[in-house]
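--- STAGE predict ---
source: upstream dedup step, 1 unique chain passed
mode: sequence only
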Amino acid sequence: MSELIFISNARLSFPHIADPQRMVVEATGKERISYNCELILAPTDPGFAHFIKVVNEMALAKWTDTAAQTMAMIHSDRRKRCFGKGEEKVNGKTFKPYDGYEGHVYITAGRDSMPQIIGPDGSAIDPTNTMACQAIARKMYGGAYINAAIKPWLQDNKHGRAVRCDLVAVQFFADGAAFGEGATDASSMFGATPGAAAQPALGGGHAPGFASLAMPWDTPAAPAGLPSFLQ
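--- STAGE serialize ---
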């Protein structure tokens, strides 16, 4: 048993929406790609409450008499679950929770193919339209807010029992403060280059910033001994 769960207005973290994350599986040495992200929510968010309810119902239906013990084991090991308290997400350099996580909860969702990308009008973007998908995905940066459709599932195989989650669809919701330092603007360090006013706005001439520099092919007289096609 499983179902799609709609999460509204979640803060996005570690997004790999249109460009997958690439990892090498130690056991096989093969590359694995994953389209994934983390959704940060308030502990009281109704979407998160519904997610936990569905996971518990799935566990009871699948593991019946051992469901309580199995879920206790899963809760005790963060690697075996796709959700948790924000304080568990600690930066290995600062030893403090990552930006935006403290006091919140999170859900990690992913899949091996690009999730469905939903436009602002609620319609799905054609996945073969790479440029359109990339354009919308760029708006979904770490710190932005998105809506998402996710689908939890229970792992039960040779690798053990765990709770995982598929990332089915995403939609940009609103801008937010970018996590980390964000994009660095270094434009204040630069000024106009010599002859900048004289260089053409588009096309023709030398590349911007090189208009005043003499190039080898600008030399009036080529040195003796060069092949004729260079003279």
